[in-house]
Specification:
The structure is a homodimer. Chain A is built from 14 helices and eight strands. By secondary structure, chain A is an alpha/beta fold. The first copy, chain A, folds into two domains: 172 residues, Rossmann fold; 201 residues, Dehydroquinate synthase-like - alpha domain (Dehydroquinate synthase-like, alpha domain, Up-down Bundle), CATH 1.20.1090.10. A six-stranded parallel sheet of chain A has the order 1-8-5-4-2-3, with helices on both faces. The two termini of chain A are 37 Å apart. The interface between A and B is large, with 40 and 40 residues.
Chain lengths: 390, 390
């Protein structure tokens, strides 16, 4: 097992009816900014319910809507101005990963004077973390189980064709309300995206090479097995509480530092996926499904031991030789994605070979030339994956 | 899935050589009290190493040794006096569950004026939590993987024949250093105790009735499978780093709120075990092994569905009818305990039937008359378990 630190102070409040805890969780007498996205929080009545809870104590509440999927730097800067002008001292993100990620940027950009006028620099530090003194405290009401942003300190922000990571130990949500019922109104395609996003997050922290992280491996396998069990149900029966509750909890657990602690990680699929989304607008999760399967096919030898473990433990494949079981495990993963309506080829989205040079160029521009758990995914290997994904 | 809150802000610093992080983790210029137990921390040189790390910055350091296994109220009160007299503002617990549990009591008793002179009352609130304003911040250097106290906010304190729970949201360690190498010098029997303690903690949060906690179930099963895989190795090869690292991480994960979130729990075995330890001095873990097997035999019908799941998933028992598989799973658990040198009957410890009335009387005295996940373990059922355990 590798050495690690694990620290995650987010208070999770999980279950039906938990919105009523808001009045206890958000500081009294605060100037609150509610951040939200494209309007579904308004349409479904959720924003009204949130406002009603916040009104139970003395607070000033301002709303900032319109944070887009793949939250954009320029939009977020408008919110930063509101936080500064209105002396906001608590932010409540009501939304999915994009709104929460955007809120993390706002929270760290607004109060740190040294970045005023050059907030773009906050996006330069990546996984090293933003050097900053403080952030505006924030909580979340999760509407879309997918990214895990509700219980981690990372965010992905878009600026033109660039998708950049913003991290900071100051950026853990103070609390996150996870009420599966709030997610019942999501369109099927977004639920399927959430299942796949959670699946791939898990795979990227698990399917590398053996490293004696037995708890971590089995916990990751448990998430994958759960997703396989409840995937079709939660996509097709949105009001099935238990299926959705399991999706919500798995998506949070898949990216809160738990399953990555002490084991190697491979974020190749995410990095290539980010470039695809930035260039084509294709949903994040759809890029992941496409790239992950190609990744396994191209790096089958490097991931051999873990692919066999995945075949045995996640898919219960006990017959046949190792290569057959690996083939079957990859095929079953693809079938699972199909079963929830997720296509697995770039051509399914009418993206053709022209994209490859552009993605590879942007990977180079962003320094993504030695990806994977071994640092052996060069631009040439990424190119091969994209060719395999066509 | 049941509604739940999950909050755990302890910073875990895991791995070989992590003791050198102490100087970064303990506040500079602090008046530090080091708490420790019976002297093995001194004998092995660990205390010297801890002091050397703390001396890297300006700090005052005082030591308080002699906290016994099953930490006693009267001993802890001496430490409370030291904290008050010496204006201690950080406590560093160097030890296992007893030292850490004791430190939690000290941390909450010392600064809260309302309990001064009547500190015994702190032990009355049990799982409801001690109403208190503050606690002295503390960190831990773990020497014995077993209780999980290094990453939770509970403690068990002894006062004569009473074993009482002290809980408080103020009582999470600020940090815990988990270096598997520090545990290499433990005697075999204590390692075996740690394996069993971790196993039973997990079982008590898992083996109840199905409640659609799929992540929680699989994570619990992962801990159990890991313990079964590494148990004999880590007892017999104390310097096998990977086996020990897996024990250490599992023991922390087994009781930090993760696997209990949103599912029923059954602490019957612990409650009966506590009474046995208080009356006979038998090691906590040894009481657990004895009582747990009896618990399953007596409440086999109530736990039927989960016993079958346990048989299938943890022991891979796929042949035979349900009853046969339950029998096999119980037998295999007992064999596993034996394989690490853990006896499974009261008579193995020369405890005879005379103990039963005394345990039942103390259960009654402590209000333990409706134990289990269904509240159906009356004193009569507890008696039956003890008879089965003879």
């Amino acid at each position: 097992m590798l050495n690690f630190s694990f620290y995650n102070p987010t208070n999770i409040v999980f279950g039906e009816g938990q919105l009523q805890e808001l009045d206890n969780l958000v500081p009294k007498n605060a100037n609150v900014l509610i951040t939200y996205g494209g309007g579904s929080a308004k349409k479904t009545g959720l924003l009204d319910r949130v406002n009603a809870e916040l009104a139970k104590s003395e607070r000033t509440v301002i709303e900032f809507g319109g944070i887009p999927a793949n939250p954009r730097f320029d939009v977020l800067m408008e919110a930063v101005k509101v936080v500064r002008d209105e002396k906001i001292d608590f932010i409540l993100a009501v939304g999915g990963g994009s709104v929460i990620d955007g809120t993390k940027f706002i929270a760290i950009a607004a109060p740190n004077k040294e970045y005023e006028g050059r907030e773009r620099e906050i996006m330069n530090f990546g996984f090293a973390g933003v050097p900053a003194e403080s952030s505006v405290p924030f909580g979340t009401v999760l509407t879309l189980p997918a990214t895990g942003s509700e219980m981690n300190n990372g965010a992905v922000i878009s600026d033109g064709e660039d998708k950049l990571v913003v991290m900071s130990p100051l950026n853990f949500p103070k609390f996150s309300i996870l009420d599966p019922e709030i997610t019942f109104t999501l369109p099927k395609t977004q639920v399927a995206n959430g299942v796949v996003d959670t699946f791939i997050h898990t795979v990227e922290q698990y399917l590398t090479f053996p490293a004696e992280g037995r708890f971590q491996d089995r916990t990751a396998e448990g998430i994958l097995q759960t997703l396989i069990e409840i995937g079709e149900t939660t996509v097709n029966e949105p009001e099935n509480y238990d299926a959705r509750a399991n999706l919500v909890w798995c998506s949070t657990m898949a990216l809160n530092g738990l399953i990555s602690a002490g084991v190697p990680q491979d974020w190749t699929t995410h990095m290539i996926g980010h470039e695809l989304t930035a260039l084509t607008g294709l949903d994040h999760a759809k890029t992941l499904a496409v790239v992950q399967l190609a990744n396994w096919k191209v790096r089958r030898a490097e991931k051999r031991e873990k692919l066999i473990q995945y075949a045995e433990r996640v898919w219960d494949l006990r017959e046949g030789d190792d290569d057959e079981r690996i083939n079957q495990a990859i095929a079953k993963t693809e079938e699972f994605f199909h079963s929830i309506g997720m296509a697995t080829k770039l051509s399914d989205y009418e993206i053709d070979a022209d994209i490859i040079d552009r993605v590879v160029a942007n990977l180079e521009k962003h320094g993504m030339t030695q990806l994977s758990e071994r640092g052996d995914v060069t631009l040439e290997v990424s190119r091969k994956m994209l060719e395999t994904a066509l």
